[in-house]
Design brief:
heterodimer; A: about 375 residues; mainly alpha; B: about 250 residues; six-stranded mixed β-sheet; about 40% helix
Chain lengths: ~375, ~250
Protein backbone atom coordinates (compact mmCIF):
# COMPACT_ATOMS: atom_id res chain seq x y z
CA UNK A 1 0.00 0.00 0.00
CA UNK A 2 1.24 3.48 -0.88
CA UNK A 3 1.67 5.99 1.92
CA UNK A 4 1.34 9.65 1.04
CA UNK A 5 4.60 11.46 1.78
CA UNK A 6 4.44 15.25 1.44
CA UNK A 7 7.56 16.80 -0.11
CA UNK A 8 9.81 18.65 2.35
CA UNK A 9 9.52 22.45 2.63
CA UNK A 10 12.42 24.14 0.84
CA UNK A 11 13.71 27.68 1.44
CA UNK A 12 12.81 30.16 -1.30
CA UNK A 13 15.44 30.81 -4.00
CA UNK A 14 17.94 33.60 -3.29
CA UNK A 15 17.00 36.52 -5.48
CA UNK A 16 20.10 38.69 -5.57
CA UNK A 17 23.85 38.18 -5.26
CA UNK A 18 25.05 41.14 -3.26
CA UNK A 19 25.18 44.83 -4.05
CA UNK A 20 27.17 44.57 -7.29
CA UNK A 21 24.85 41.92 -8.62
CA UNK A 22 21.84 43.97 -7.68
CA UNK A 23 23.23 47.07 -9.40
CA UNK A 24 24.16 45.15 -12.48
CA UNK A 25 20.72 43.64 -12.88
CA UNK A 26 18.68 46.67 -11.84
CA UNK A 27 20.68 49.73 -12.91
CA UNK A 28 23.01 48.70 -15.71
CA UNK A 29 21.29 45.82 -17.47
CA UNK A 30 20.97 47.48 -20.90
CA UNK A 31 22.31 50.58 -22.73
CA UNK A 32 19.03 52.39 -22.13
CA UNK A 33 19.10 51.53 -18.42
CA UNK A 34 22.71 52.67 -18.16
CA UNK A 35 21.81 55.98 -19.75
CA UNK A 36 18.79 56.47 -17.47
CA UNK A 37 20.73 55.53 -14.35
CA UNK A 38 23.52 57.96 -15.19
CA UNK A 39 21.01 60.74 -15.89
CA UNK A 40 19.31 60.16 -12.54
CA UNK A 41 22.67 60.13 -10.77
CA UNK A 42 23.53 63.41 -12.43
CA UNK A 43 20.23 65.01 -11.39
CA UNK A 44 20.73 63.86 -7.80
CA UNK A 45 24.31 65.13 -7.86
CA UNK A 46 23.39 68.53 -9.24
CA UNK A 47 20.50 69.14 -6.80
CA UNK A 48 21.25 67.40 -3.53
CA UNK A 49 24.85 68.58 -3.15
CA UNK A 50 24.16 72.27 -3.79
CA UNK A 51 21.26 72.03 -1.35
CA UNK A 52 23.43 70.46 1.33
CA UNK A 53 26.05 73.10 0.68
CA UNK A 54 23.46 75.85 1.07
CA UNK A 55 21.71 74.30 4.06
CA UNK A 56 24.71 73.10 6.05
CA UNK A 57 28.22 73.80 4.73
CA UNK A 58 28.01 77.50 3.98
CA UNK A 59 25.13 78.25 6.35
CA UNK A 60 25.31 80.55 9.36
CA UNK A 61 23.76 79.29 12.52
CA UNK A 62 24.39 81.99 15.12
CA UNK A 63 23.79 85.70 15.10
CA UNK A 64 21.43 88.52 15.94
CA UNK A 65 20.84 90.18 12.57
CA UNK A 66 21.64 89.94 8.87
CA UNK A 67 25.29 90.84 9.43
CA UNK A 68 25.77 87.34 10.81
CA UNK A 69 24.77 85.74 7.52
CA UNK A 70 27.84 86.27 5.38
CA UNK A 71 28.77 82.85 4.01
CA UNK A 72 26.20 82.88 1.21
CA UNK A 73 24.32 79.87 2.52
CA UNK A 74 21.18 79.54 4.59
CA UNK A 75 20.70 82.03 7.38
CA UNK A 76 19.58 79.67 10.13
CA UNK A 77 20.64 82.32 12.61
CA UNK A 78 17.32 83.97 11.80
CA UNK A 79 15.37 80.87 12.81
CA UNK A 80 17.51 80.37 15.90
CA UNK A 81 17.16 84.00 16.92
CA UNK A 82 13.40 84.08 16.46
CA UNK A 83 12.71 80.56 17.71
CA UNK A 84 11.00 81.68 20.95
CA UNK A 85 8.51 83.81 19.06
CA UNK A 86 7.90 81.03 16.51
CA UNK A 87 7.10 78.64 19.31
CA UNK A 88 5.40 80.84 21.88
CA UNK A 89 3.97 83.61 19.71
CA UNK A 90 3.29 86.75 21.67
CA UNK A 91 2.75 84.87 24.89
CA UNK A 92 4.33 86.81 27.81
CA UNK A 93 7.94 85.72 28.09
CA UNK A 94 7.75 85.40 31.88
CA UNK A 95 5.03 82.76 31.45
CA UNK A 96 6.80 80.61 28.85
CA UNK A 97 7.21 77.90 31.49
CA UNK A 98 3.47 77.28 31.39
CA UNK A 99 3.63 76.41 27.71
CA UNK A 100 6.77 74.39 28.35
CA UNK A 101 5.03 72.28 30.96
CA UNK A 102 2.00 71.77 28.72
CA UNK A 103 4.22 70.72 25.85
CA UNK A 104 6.17 68.39 28.11
CA UNK A 105 2.91 66.86 29.32
CA UNK A 106 1.84 66.40 25.71
CA UNK A 107 5.05 64.56 24.90
CA UNK A 108 4.90 62.51 28.09
CA UNK A 109 1.33 61.44 27.49
CA UNK A 110 1.82 60.48 23.84
CA UNK A 111 5.47 59.44 23.64
CA UNK A 112 5.11 56.21 25.62
CA UNK A 113 2.35 55.05 23.24
CA UNK A 114 5.13 54.27 20.78
CA UNK A 115 6.72 51.74 23.13
CA UNK A 116 5.25 48.29 23.24
CA UNK A 117 6.58 47.49 26.71
CA UNK A 118 5.13 50.51 28.49
CA UNK A 119 2.51 49.12 30.89
CA UNK A 120 0.14 52.05 31.55
CA UNK A 121 -0.77 52.90 27.96
CA UNK A 122 -4.50 52.73 28.50
CA UNK A 123 -4.51 54.95 31.59
CA UNK A 124 -2.19 57.38 29.85
CA UNK A 125 -4.39 57.39 26.76
CA UNK A 126 -7.43 58.26 28.85
CA UNK A 127 -5.42 60.98 30.60
CA UNK A 128 -4.28 62.50 27.33
CA UNK A 129 -7.88 62.69 26.13
CA UNK A 130 -9.52 63.91 29.33
CA UNK A 131 -7.15 65.15 32.03
CA UNK A 132 -4.58 66.73 29.77
CA UNK A 133 -6.90 69.14 27.92
CA UNK A 134 -8.20 70.45 31.27
CA UNK A 135 -4.75 70.86 32.82
CA UNK A 136 -3.44 72.32 29.58
CA UNK A 137 -6.25 74.86 29.42
CA UNK A 138 -5.83 75.94 33.04
CA UNK A 139 -2.09 76.25 32.57
CA UNK A 140 -2.09 78.13 29.29
CA UNK A 141 -5.09 80.34 29.85
CA UNK A 142 -4.42 81.07 33.50
CA UNK A 143 -6.76 83.21 35.54
CA UNK A 144 -6.99 80.64 38.32
CA UNK A 145 -4.63 78.96 40.81
CA UNK A 146 -2.72 82.23 41.05
CA UNK A 147 -1.73 82.08 37.39
CA UNK A 148 -1.82 85.33 35.46
CA UNK A 149 -4.62 85.42 32.89
CA UNK A 150 -3.35 85.34 29.31
CA UNK A 151 -6.04 86.30 26.77
CA UNK A 152 -6.23 84.08 23.71
CA UNK A 153 -5.15 86.85 21.34
CA UNK A 154 -1.72 86.54 22.89
CA UNK A 155 -1.54 82.84 22.12
CA UNK A 156 0.39 82.14 18.99
CA UNK A 157 3.11 80.32 17.15
CA UNK A 158 3.61 76.58 17.34
CA UNK A 159 1.81 76.55 20.68
CA UNK A 160 -1.36 77.86 19.04
CA UNK A 161 -1.02 75.47 16.11
CA UNK A 162 -0.74 72.54 18.50
CA UNK A 163 -3.61 73.77 20.65
CA UNK A 164 -5.96 74.06 17.70
CA UNK A 165 -4.87 70.73 16.24
CA UNK A 166 -5.15 68.95 19.58
CA UNK A 167 -8.60 70.25 20.40
CA UNK A 168 -9.74 69.57 16.85
CA UNK A 169 -8.47 66.00 16.90
CA UNK A 170 -9.72 65.12 20.37
CA UNK A 171 -13.17 66.56 19.70
CA UNK A 172 -13.64 65.62 16.04
CA UNK A 173 -13.20 61.87 16.49
CA UNK A 174 -15.98 61.24 19.04
CA UNK A 175 -18.34 63.69 17.33
CA UNK A 176 -17.54 62.05 14.00
CA UNK A 177 -18.26 58.59 15.40
CA UNK A 178 -21.55 59.79 16.84
CA UNK A 179 -22.52 61.37 13.51
CA UNK A 180 -21.59 58.22 11.60
CA UNK A 181 -23.72 56.07 13.91
CA UNK A 182 -26.52 58.61 13.65
CA UNK A 183 -26.42 58.59 9.89
CA UNK A 184 -26.91 54.82 9.94
CA UNK A 185 -29.56 55.00 12.63
CA UNK A 186 -33.02 53.60 12.01
CA UNK A 187 -34.58 56.60 13.72
CA UNK A 188 -35.54 59.03 10.95
CA UNK A 189 -35.14 62.25 12.96
CA UNK A 190 -31.64 61.39 14.13
CA UNK A 191 -30.67 60.19 10.68
CA UNK A 192 -31.98 63.30 8.98
CA UNK A 193 -30.22 65.54 11.47
CA UNK A 194 -26.90 63.76 10.98
CA UNK A 195 -27.15 63.78 7.20
CA UNK A 196 -27.99 67.49 7.21
CA UNK A 197 -25.16 68.27 9.59
CA UNK A 198 -22.57 66.29 7.65
CA UNK A 199 -23.58 67.56 4.24
CA UNK A 200 -23.79 71.14 5.43
CA UNK A 201 -20.32 71.26 6.97
CA UNK A 202 -18.73 69.17 4.28
CA UNK A 203 -20.18 71.34 1.57
CA UNK A 204 -18.51 74.58 2.58
CA UNK A 205 -14.80 75.48 2.49
CA UNK A 206 -13.07 75.65 5.86
CA UNK A 207 -11.99 79.18 5.10
CA UNK A 208 -15.59 80.32 4.87
CA UNK A 209 -16.42 78.45 8.08
CA UNK A 210 -13.68 80.36 9.85
CA UNK A 211 -14.70 83.60 8.27
CA UNK A 212 -18.32 83.08 9.27
CA UNK A 213 -17.32 82.20 12.80
CA UNK A 214 -15.22 85.29 13.25
CA UNK A 215 -17.09 87.92 11.27
CA UNK A 216 -20.68 86.83 10.75
CA UNK A 217 -21.49 85.04 13.98
CA UNK A 218 -20.94 88.09 16.23
CA UNK A 219 -23.48 89.99 14.13
CA UNK A 220 -26.16 87.50 15.05
CA UNK A 221 -25.32 87.39 18.73
CA UNK A 222 -27.19 89.75 21.05
CA UNK A 223 -25.54 93.03 21.92
CA UNK A 224 -22.77 92.72 24.49
CA UNK A 225 -22.56 88.96 24.14
CA UNK A 226 -19.26 88.03 22.69
CA UNK A 227 -17.27 84.94 23.04
CA UNK A 228 -13.68 84.25 22.37
CA UNK A 229 -12.38 84.38 18.82
CA UNK A 230 -10.18 81.33 19.32
CA UNK A 231 -13.08 79.39 20.81
CA UNK A 232 -15.21 80.25 17.79
CA UNK A 233 -12.46 79.12 15.45
CA UNK A 234 -12.06 75.89 17.44
CA UNK A 235 -15.76 75.14 17.22
CA UNK A 236 -15.72 75.86 13.50
CA UNK A 237 -12.75 73.60 12.84
CA UNK A 238 -14.15 70.83 15.04
CA UNK A 239 -17.54 70.85 13.33
CA UNK A 240 -15.92 70.91 9.91
CA UNK A 241 -13.53 68.05 10.61
CA UNK A 242 -16.07 65.94 12.46
CA UNK A 243 -18.22 65.94 9.33
CA UNK A 244 -15.29 64.50 7.40
CA UNK A 245 -14.54 62.10 10.23
CA UNK A 246 -18.14 60.92 10.20
CA UNK A 247 -17.89 59.86 6.58
CA UNK A 248 -14.59 58.07 7.17
CA UNK A 249 -16.06 56.15 10.11
CA UNK A 250 -19.23 55.39 8.16
CA UNK A 251 -17.06 53.80 5.50
CA UNK A 252 -15.69 51.50 8.18
CA UNK A 253 -19.13 50.70 9.56
CA UNK A 254 -20.35 49.71 6.12
CA UNK A 255 -17.46 47.31 5.68
CA UNK A 256 -18.50 45.22 8.68
CA UNK A 257 -20.42 42.16 7.51
CA UNK A 258 -24.05 41.85 8.58
CA UNK A 259 -23.20 38.59 10.31
CA UNK A 260 -21.31 40.50 12.98
CA UNK A 261 -24.42 42.48 13.88
CA UNK A 262 -26.49 39.30 13.85
CA UNK A 263 -24.08 37.36 16.03
CA UNK A 264 -24.05 40.21 18.54
CA UNK A 265 -27.84 40.34 18.53
CA UNK A 266 -28.18 36.59 18.86
CA UNK A 267 -25.96 36.76 21.95
CA UNK A 268 -28.36 39.20 23.54
CA UNK A 269 -26.36 42.38 23.05
CA UNK A 270 -28.27 45.60 22.62
CA UNK A 271 -27.40 48.42 20.24
CA UNK A 272 -24.79 50.16 22.39
CA UNK A 273 -23.07 46.98 23.50
CA UNK A 274 -22.83 45.54 20.02
CA UNK A 275 -21.62 48.86 18.64
CA UNK A 276 -19.12 49.47 21.42
CA UNK A 277 -17.76 45.96 21.74
CA UNK A 278 -18.14 44.43 18.29
CA UNK A 279 -18.77 46.86 15.47
CA UNK A 280 -16.85 50.04 16.29
CA UNK A 281 -13.59 48.35 17.35
CA UNK A 282 -13.50 46.60 13.98
CA UNK A 283 -14.75 49.53 11.94
CA UNK A 284 -12.35 52.04 13.48
CA UNK A 285 -9.45 49.66 13.00
CA UNK A 286 -10.32 49.33 9.33
CA UNK A 287 -10.35 53.07 8.77
CA UNK A 288 -7.23 54.02 10.74
CA UNK A 289 -5.57 55.25 7.52
CA UNK A 290 -8.58 57.43 6.76
CA UNK A 291 -8.82 58.74 10.31
CA UNK A 292 -5.15 59.68 10.41
CA UNK A 293 -5.52 61.23 6.98
CA UNK A 294 -8.22 63.47 8.39
CA UNK A 295 -6.07 64.28 11.41
CA UNK A 296 -3.17 65.28 9.21
CA UNK A 297 -5.43 67.40 7.03
CA UNK A 298 -6.79 69.04 10.16
CA UNK A 299 -3.30 69.72 11.44
CA UNK A 300 -2.33 71.44 8.24
CA UNK A 301 -5.63 73.29 7.98
CA UNK A 302 -4.86 75.06 11.24
CA UNK A 303 -2.77 77.49 9.18
CA UNK A 304 -6.03 78.93 7.84
CA UNK A 305 -6.73 80.64 11.17
CA UNK A 306 -4.42 83.33 9.81
CA UNK A 307 -7.34 84.85 7.94
CA UNK A 308 -9.25 85.53 11.14
CA UNK A 309 -6.26 87.20 12.75
CA UNK A 310 -4.90 84.34 14.83
CA UNK A 311 -1.16 83.95 14.57
CA UNK A 312 -0.24 80.33 14.22
CA UNK A 313 3.32 79.28 13.44
CA UNK A 314 3.05 80.01 9.72
CA UNK A 315 1.56 83.45 10.30
CA UNK A 316 4.24 84.33 12.86
CA UNK A 317 7.01 83.25 10.52
CA UNK A 318 5.40 85.13 7.67
CA UNK A 319 5.47 88.32 9.67
CA UNK A 320 8.98 87.69 10.94
CA UNK A 321 10.52 87.33 7.47
CA UNK A 322 9.48 90.86 6.59
CA UNK A 323 11.58 92.24 9.43
CA UNK A 324 14.32 94.43 7.82
CA UNK A 325 16.77 93.42 10.58
CA UNK A 326 17.14 90.24 8.57
CA UNK A 327 17.78 90.02 4.87
CA UNK A 328 15.98 87.69 2.52
CA UNK A 329 15.13 84.85 4.87
CA UNK A 330 11.80 83.73 3.41
CA UNK A 331 13.22 80.37 2.27
CA UNK A 332 14.70 79.58 5.66
CA UNK A 333 11.51 80.58 7.45
CA UNK A 334 9.26 78.54 5.22
CA UNK A 335 11.56 75.53 5.33
CA UNK A 336 11.44 75.69 9.11
CA UNK A 337 7.65 75.79 9.11
CA UNK A 338 7.50 72.96 6.61
CA UNK A 339 9.82 70.92 8.78
CA UNK A 340 7.70 71.50 11.88
CA UNK A 341 4.54 70.42 10.08
CA UNK A 342 6.25 67.45 8.53
CA UNK A 343 7.58 66.35 11.90
CA UNK A 344 4.14 66.24 13.51
CA UNK A 345 2.33 64.80 10.51
CA UNK A 346 4.97 62.14 9.99
CA UNK A 347 4.78 61.17 13.67
CA UNK A 348 1.03 60.72 13.36
CA UNK A 349 1.52 58.63 10.26
CA UNK A 350 4.11 56.40 11.96
CA UNK A 351 1.92 56.00 14.99
CA UNK A 352 -1.02 54.94 12.86
CA UNK A 353 1.09 52.34 11.08
CA UNK A 354 2.24 50.98 14.40
CA UNK A 355 -1.35 50.83 15.59
CA UNK A 356 -2.44 49.00 12.45
CA UNK A 357 0.26 46.39 12.89
CA UNK A 358 -0.58 45.95 16.55
CA UNK A 359 -4.31 45.55 15.92
CA UNK A 360 -3.84 43.15 13.03
CA UNK A 361 -5.24 39.83 14.17
CA UNK A 362 -4.55 37.84 11.03
CA UNK A 363 -8.18 37.44 10.17
CA UNK A 364 -9.66 37.17 6.78
CA UNK A 365 -13.16 38.24 5.97
CA UNK B 1 -46.78 15.84 21.77
CA UNK B 2 -50.03 16.90 20.13
CA UNK B 3 -51.74 17.61 23.42
CA UNK B 4 -48.84 19.36 25.12
CA UNK B 5 -49.85 22.72 26.52
CA UNK B 6 -48.28 25.97 25.37
CA UNK B 7 -46.00 26.33 28.34
CA UNK B 8 -44.40 22.98 27.86
CA UNK B 9 -43.42 23.64 24.26
CA UNK B 10 -39.94 24.95 23.53
CA UNK B 11 -40.95 26.64 20.31
CA UNK B 12 -44.40 27.22 18.94
CA UNK B 13 -45.04 28.80 15.56
CA UNK B 14 -48.68 29.40 14.68
CA UNK B 15 -49.74 30.62 11.22
CA UNK B 16 -46.52 32.58 10.82
CA UNK B 17 -46.31 34.73 7.70
CA UNK B 18 -43.49 36.92 6.56
CA UNK B 19 -42.82 39.12 3.57
CA UNK B 20 -39.62 40.65 2.24
CA UNK B 21 -41.16 43.67 0.59
CA UNK B 22 -43.60 42.13 -1.87
CA UNK B 23 -42.07 38.70 -1.65
CA UNK B 24 -44.07 36.29 0.51
CA UNK B 25 -41.26 34.29 2.07
CA UNK B 26 -43.07 32.39 4.83
CA UNK B 27 -46.62 31.14 4.32
CA UNK B 28 -48.76 29.88 7.20
CA UNK B 29 -45.95 28.15 9.05
CA UNK B 30 -47.13 25.94 11.89
CA UNK B 31 -44.52 24.17 13.94
CA UNK B 32 -44.39 22.91 17.51
CA UNK B 33 -41.15 21.80 19.07
CA UNK B 34 -41.13 20.01 22.40
CA UNK B 35 -38.22 20.43 24.82
CA UNK B 36 -35.39 18.07 23.94
CA UNK B 37 -36.65 17.55 20.42
CA UNK B 38 -34.18 17.64 17.54
CA UNK B 39 -35.56 18.97 14.29
CA UNK B 40 -33.78 19.00 10.97
CA UNK B 41 -35.08 21.40 8.34
CA UNK B 42 -34.15 20.92 4.71
CA UNK B 43 -35.27 22.25 1.40
CA UNK B 44 -34.02 24.00 -1.72
CA UNK B 45 -32.37 27.40 -1.39
CA UNK B 46 -34.86 30.21 -1.17
CA UNK B 47 -37.44 27.99 0.46
CA UNK B 48 -37.52 30.10 3.62
CA UNK B 49 -35.92 27.58 5.97
CA UNK B 50 -33.23 29.97 7.21
CA UNK B 51 -35.75 32.77 7.49
CA UNK B 52 -37.97 30.55 9.60
CA UNK B 53 -35.36 29.72 12.21
CA UNK B 54 -34.08 33.30 12.18
CA UNK B 55 -37.58 34.38 13.15
CA UNK B 56 -37.29 32.26 16.29
CA UNK B 57 -34.68 34.60 17.83
CA UNK B 58 -36.06 37.62 16.05
CA UNK B 59 -33.16 38.21 13.70
CA UNK B 60 -36.06 38.45 11.27
CA UNK B 61 -39.40 39.94 12.11
CA UNK B 62 -42.60 38.07 11.26
CA UNK B 63 -45.55 40.15 10.14
CA UNK B 64 -48.40 37.79 10.94
CA UNK B 65 -48.99 34.84 13.22
CA UNK B 66 -47.59 33.97 16.58
CA UNK B 67 -44.17 32.80 17.72
CA UNK B 68 -43.82 31.63 21.30
CA UNK B 69 -40.42 30.60 22.59
CA UNK B 70 -40.30 28.96 26.01
CA UNK B 71 -43.60 30.58 26.91
CA UNK B 72 -42.54 34.06 25.78
CA UNK B 73 -44.35 35.48 22.80
CA UNK B 74 -42.20 37.47 20.40
CA UNK B 75 -43.55 40.96 19.83
CA UNK B 76 -42.13 44.41 19.27
CA UNK B 77 -41.29 44.47 22.97
CA UNK B 78 -37.50 44.66 23.23
CA UNK B 79 -37.51 43.19 26.72
CA UNK B 80 -39.19 40.02 25.47
CA UNK B 81 -36.82 39.80 22.52
CA UNK B 82 -33.98 40.02 25.00
CA UNK B 83 -35.49 37.29 27.15
CA UNK B 84 -35.94 35.02 24.16
CA UNK B 85 -32.39 35.60 22.97
CA UNK B 86 -31.20 34.64 26.42
CA UNK B 87 -32.86 31.23 25.98
CA UNK B 88 -31.81 30.66 22.39
CA UNK B 89 -28.31 30.12 21.03
CA UNK B 90 -27.49 30.34 17.36
CA UNK B 91 -24.76 29.15 15.02
CA UNK B 92 -24.39 30.65 11.58
CA UNK B 93 -23.24 29.34 8.24
CA UNK B 94 -20.29 31.75 8.22
CA UNK B 95 -19.59 31.33 11.96
CA UNK B 96 -19.68 35.10 12.55
CA UNK B 97 -16.98 34.98 15.17
CA UNK B 98 -15.65 38.36 16.22
CA UNK B 99 -12.32 38.58 14.38
CA UNK B 100 -10.84 41.28 16.64
CA UNK B 101 -11.18 39.14 19.76
CA UNK B 102 -9.42 35.94 20.75
CA UNK B 103 -11.33 32.69 20.87
CA UNK B 104 -11.60 32.97 24.64
CA UNK B 105 -12.78 36.58 24.47
CA UNK B 106 -15.36 35.60 21.87
CA UNK B 107 -16.77 33.14 24.39
CA UNK B 108 -16.59 35.36 27.46
CA UNK B 109 -17.77 38.62 25.90
CA UNK B 110 -21.49 38.11 26.36
CA UNK B 111 -21.02 36.50 29.78
CA UNK B 112 -19.11 39.54 31.00
CA UNK B 113 -21.09 42.31 29.34
CA UNK B 114 -24.58 40.83 29.07
CA UNK B 115 -24.63 38.53 32.11
CA UNK B 116 -22.36 40.86 34.16
CA UNK B 117 -20.25 37.93 35.27
CA UNK B 118 -16.76 38.43 36.74
CA UNK B 119 -14.05 37.80 34.17
CA UNK B 120 -12.44 34.85 35.97
CA UNK B 121 -15.73 33.02 36.29
CA UNK B 122 -16.62 33.70 32.66
CA UNK B 123 -13.26 32.33 31.51
CA UNK B 124 -13.82 29.18 33.54
CA UNK B 125 -17.14 28.60 31.83
CA UNK B 126 -15.67 29.42 28.42
CA UNK B 127 -12.80 26.97 28.91
CA UNK B 128 -15.28 24.30 29.97
CA UNK B 129 -17.18 24.61 26.71
CA UNK B 130 -14.03 24.96 24.61
CA UNK B 131 -12.96 21.65 26.10
CA UNK B 132 -16.31 20.18 25.19
CA UNK B 133 -15.83 21.15 21.55
CA UNK B 134 -12.25 19.86 21.88
CA UNK B 135 -10.24 23.00 21.17
CA UNK B 136 -9.16 24.37 24.57
CA UNK B 137 -5.61 24.75 23.20
CA UNK B 138 -6.78 27.38 20.70
CA UNK B 139 -8.23 29.69 23.36
CA UNK B 140 -5.60 32.41 22.98
CA UNK B 141 -5.63 32.46 19.19
CA UNK B 142 -7.66 34.74 16.97
CA UNK B 143 -10.47 33.28 14.84
CA UNK B 144 -8.56 34.12 11.65
CA UNK B 145 -5.84 31.69 12.69
CA UNK B 146 -8.19 28.70 12.92
CA UNK B 147 -9.58 26.38 10.28
CA UNK B 148 -13.22 26.62 9.30
CA UNK B 149 -14.15 23.55 11.32
CA UNK B 150 -12.41 24.90 14.39
CA UNK B 151 -14.11 28.26 13.95
CA UNK B 152 -17.52 26.67 13.79
CA UNK B 153 -16.79 24.68 16.94
CA UNK B 154 -15.76 27.91 18.66
CA UNK B 155 -19.05 29.41 17.51
CA UNK B 156 -20.91 26.49 19.06
CA UNK B 157 -18.96 26.86 22.30
CA UNK B 158 -19.67 30.59 22.28
CA UNK B 159 -23.39 29.94 22.09
CA UNK B 160 -23.27 27.22 24.74
CA UNK B 161 -21.53 29.58 27.18
CA UNK B 162 -24.81 31.43 27.54
CA UNK B 163 -26.41 28.11 28.59
CA UNK B 164 -29.25 28.29 26.08
CA UNK B 165 -32.24 25.96 26.29
CA UNK B 166 -32.65 25.91 22.53
CA UNK B 167 -29.97 25.88 19.84
CA UNK B 168 -30.54 27.08 16.29
CA UNK B 169 -28.15 25.99 13.56
CA UNK B 170 -28.30 27.79 10.22
CA UNK B 171 -26.46 25.55 7.73
CA UNK B 172 -23.54 25.09 10.13
CA UNK B 173 -21.51 22.92 7.76
CA UNK B 174 -22.32 24.47 4.37
CA UNK B 175 -19.27 26.73 4.32
CA UNK B 176 -16.84 24.02 5.41
CA UNK B 177 -14.39 21.90 3.49
CA UNK B 178 -15.51 18.26 3.36
CA UNK B 179 -12.74 17.20 5.72
CA UNK B 180 -13.98 19.53 8.43
CA UNK B 181 -17.66 18.73 8.33
CA UNK B 182 -17.31 15.67 10.49
CA UNK B 183 -15.64 17.42 13.41
CA UNK B 184 -18.50 19.88 13.60
CA UNK B 185 -21.19 17.23 13.20
CA UNK B 186 -19.56 15.15 15.96
CA UNK B 187 -19.94 18.07 18.34
CA UNK B 188 -23.54 18.55 17.29
CA UNK B 189 -24.31 14.85 17.73
CA UNK B 190 -22.89 14.98 21.24
CA UNK B 191 -24.99 18.00 21.98
CA UNK B 192 -28.07 16.18 20.72
CA UNK B 193 -27.31 13.17 22.87
CA UNK B 194 -27.21 15.41 25.92
CA UNK B 195 -30.80 16.39 25.29
CA UNK B 196 -30.47 19.89 23.85
CA UNK B 197 -33.48 21.19 21.95
CA UNK B 198 -32.15 21.74 18.45
CA UNK B 199 -33.48 23.21 15.23
CA UNK B 200 -31.02 22.64 12.48
CA UNK B 201 -31.14 23.78 8.87
CA UNK B 202 -28.82 21.38 7.08
CA UNK B 203 -28.44 19.13 4.09
CA UNK B 204 -26.38 16.61 6.04
CA UNK B 205 -28.79 13.74 5.66
CA UNK B 206 -26.56 11.37 7.60
CA UNK B 207 -26.80 13.71 10.55
CA UNK B 208 -30.56 13.93 10.14
CA UNK B 209 -30.92 10.15 10.17
CA UNK B 210 -28.69 9.86 13.21
CA UNK B 211 -30.10 12.47 15.57
CA UNK B 212 -33.31 14.04 14.28
CA UNK B 213 -36.66 13.25 15.86
CA UNK B 214 -38.36 14.93 12.95
CA UNK B 215 -37.32 16.09 9.51
CA UNK B 216 -39.10 19.02 7.95
CA UNK B 217 -39.05 19.71 4.26
CA UNK B 218 -39.79 23.23 3.10
CA UNK B 219 -40.34 24.70 -0.32
CA UNK B 220 -41.63 28.07 -1.48
CA UNK B 221 -42.12 29.31 2.06
CA UNK B 222 -44.25 26.39 3.21
CA UNK B 223 -43.73 23.27 5.22
CA UNK B 224 -44.35 20.63 2.58
CA UNK B 225 -43.75 17.53 4.63
CA UNK B 226 -42.70 16.57 8.11
CA UNK B 227 -42.04 13.13 9.43
CA UNK B 228 -39.62 11.03 11.46
CA UNK B 229 -36.34 10.53 9.59
CA UNK B 230 -37.02 6.86 8.88
CA UNK B 231 -40.33 7.55 7.16
CA UNK B 232 -39.12 10.77 5.61
CA UNK B 233 -36.22 9.20 3.76
CA UNK B 234 -37.65 5.79 2.99
CA UNK B 235 -41.22 6.71 2.32
CA UNK B 236 -41.64 10.36 1.34
CA UNK B 237 -45.27 11.25 0.71
CA UNK B 238 -45.03 14.36 -1.41
CA UNK B 239 -43.75 14.46 -5.00
CA UNK B 240 -41.75 17.60 -4.26
CA UNK B 241 -40.03 15.84 -1.39
CA UNK B 242 -39.27 12.83 -3.55
CA UNK B 243 -37.72 15.01 -6.22
CA UNK B 244 -35.62 16.92 -3.69
CA UNK B 245 -34.41 13.73 -2.04
CA UNK B 246 -33.52 12.15 -5.35
CA UNK B 247 -31.50 15.21 -6.22
CA UNK B 248 -29.48 15.35 -3.04
CA UNK B 249 -29.10 11.63 -2.40
CA UNK B 250 -28.32 10.32 -5.88
CA UNK B 251 -24.72 11.41 -5.98
Amino acid sequence: MNTFQPLPDLPPPVASTGLVGWMRSNLFSSPLNILMSLTVFYVIYSTVFPFLDWAIVSANFVGDDKSACTDGGACWAFVGNRLPIFIYGTYPAAEYWRLDISFLLLILSFGPQFFEAFPYKKALGIFSLTGFPVIGFVLISGGSFGLEYVPTDRWGGLALTLTIAYVGIVAALPIGVALALGRRSEMPVIRAFCIAFIELWRGVPLISVLFMSSVMLPLFLPEGMNFDKLLRALIGITMFQSAYMAEVVRGGLQAIPRGQYEAAKAMGMGYWKSMGLIILPQALKLVIPGIVNTFIALFKDTTLVLIIGLFDILAIVESAITDPVWGAVATEGHLFVAFCFWLFCFSMSRYSQKLERKLHTGHKR
Amino acid sequence: MENATTNELAVQLTDVNKWYGEFHVLKDINLNVAPGERIVICGPSGSGKSTMIRCINRLEEHQAGQIIVNGIELTEDLKRIDEVRREVGMCFQHFNLFPHLTVLENCTLALIYVRKMPKAEAEKIAMHYLERVKIPEQARKFPGQLSGGQQQRVAIARSLCMSPKIMLFDEPTSALDPEMIKEVLDVMVELAEEGMTMLCVTHEMGFAKLVANRVIFMDAGQIVEENNPHEFFDNPQNDRTKMFLSQILNH
